Amino acid sequence: MRFSLFGGRRSLSDTVDLSGIAMLDWPKAIHDGGGKAVFIVQPDTTEEQIGCLAQIYTGQLGGNPWAILGTTYEVAGLVKTPITIDGTGLKITMSADGVGSASGDTFKNPVTGEPHEAQIVLPDGFIWTKGECGVGSFTAVAEGLDMKYNDSNWIYYEFDWADDR
To answer: What mean pLDDT comes out for the span 36-57?
Structure first.
């Protein structure tokens, strides 16, 4: 999961353009808990910014999805390493030095190879209400998590961090 913060509550005004990657792994259904998370940030991320991120991603500040998801995993670690993120929406590549890489794209029409746009709309969704669907692959190893998925479900969505639905 890629995240970007653009100001906000607490001391987050110093996090403008702060981007990172979250490795999230649950052994069963998310609501069953028992998950592990590793957060990957740029080397110049300050301790104050990391403290704010920790409060957000563990649900301490409220707001969905983290008020819900933050209760379903334990933080296994934090990695400071150069991160490269290129592209937008579904068409994106990400890499974290020494950790791994990921890439996503739209579905493709099997006959023409042209992009095949697919969306999921959840009018009453509690984390997101519209997701653009595609296919992605990633491999990452850090802080005891070892994840590798090829041609997996890949959904791009935006959400309001302050939404307490």
So the answer is: 90
